Amino acid sequence: xxxxxxxIEQYLKKLLKDSLEDYIEIQRSKVASYFNCVPSQIxxxxxxxxxxxxxxxxxxxxxxxxxxxIIKLPLDRRVNLVLxxxxxxxxxxxxxxxxxxxxxxxxxxxxxQREKRLMCAVIDSKLRYLExxxxxxxxxxxxKAMVTAVLKE
Amino acid sequence: xxxxxxxIEQYLKKLLKDSLEDYIEIQRSKVASYFNCVPSQIxxxxxxxxxxxxxxxxxxxxxxxxxxxIIKLPLDRRVNLVLxxxxxxxxxxxxxxxxxxxxxxxxxxxxxQREKRLMCAVIDSKLRYLExxxxxxxxxxxxKAMVTAVLKE
DNA sequence: TAAGTTAAAGTCAATCAAGGTCAAAGCGGG
DNA sequence: CCCGCTTTGACCTTGATTGACTTTAACTTA
Lengths: 153, 153
Description:
- Two copies of one chain form a homodimer.
- Chain A is mainly α.
- The first copy, chain A, is built from seven helices and three strands.
- Chain A has a three-stranded antiparallel sheet with strand order 1-3-2.
- Chain A folds into two domains: 4-72, Transcriptional regulator CtsR, winged HTH domain (Phenylalanyl-tRNA Synthetase, Chain B, domain 1, 2-Layer Sandwich); 81-151, Non-ribosomal Peptide Synthetase Peptidyl Carrier Protein, Chain A.
- Chain A binds chain B through residues 1-3, 5-6, 112, 114-115, 117-122, 124-127, 129-130, 134, 137-138, 141-142, 145-146, 148-150, 152, and chain B through 25, 61, 63-65, 67, 112, 114-115, 117-122, 124-125, 127, 129-130, 134, 137-138, 141-142, 145-146, 148-150, 152-153.
- The structure holds a DNA duplex.
């Protein structure tokens, strides 16, 4: 398991973890040349692993002195966490986004490892009877039910 | 008794035995070309010899840098439990039976209160798109996935 | 200060690299 | 001969990589 995208992902997450702030600023071209890849690969990593669905916000500026800022949304247990998450999930959610969300919940220690596995197993179940759109809706339904159940204490 | 499938099976089991972890990661195409067979033969071996029923969990990822991970379930009483439970669940299960099983797992302290709520939420989800027989099948599928996931430690 | 230059980052489609599925053909023992 | 397990291959889906082209911002200079 070692494609460049994974390495870049880990690299960025480590930067975030080590940062004193809840965000980091990078230079696309720097990171790209550090990993010996084309700059657009960074965008690929950002869109596939640092989307809103994954709990991040990405801002940037072009031109001289440009940068990319990756902000980690705080995901703590206050008031409307459940509602926010359900909102985030909506009526329909892709497998990737669902997994991203679950991972984030785990990273924030909002859920345990076992709970993560449990939720992933549900999301990952090959619901072979179903068409894609229905599948995405079903997934949203189940995910919301799970998040609600596990967080409502 | 020496068809390719058996050889591949032994090969993979040896890898597992020699591994420091309780899992291995392989590349389907590599193994296939090592054994001079078509890639899909590996899938055949996996489904016929490394199923949950056999005490393994198989995960994978496609695309560049893809891999197949074979996880060996530790063979203590919990695993037998998983296998037995999966057996018990079968292809289809009613809501009442499912709930009963979950309660039982809780009573035995095999799962936590949160996990119980999580599982109940999944089972209880009104899967409004579906007919009864399919619903029962789906429930069985999800329940088995959950039990396996939560107990695989 | 407007115009031109340079230094970023963004987009998108093509291509490559896996693994998944399924049905049909092959084969071996009873 | 038949049944069930094995083998094969065509076709599918998903994910990663690359590069040509575009857009935006800052800097420089006349």
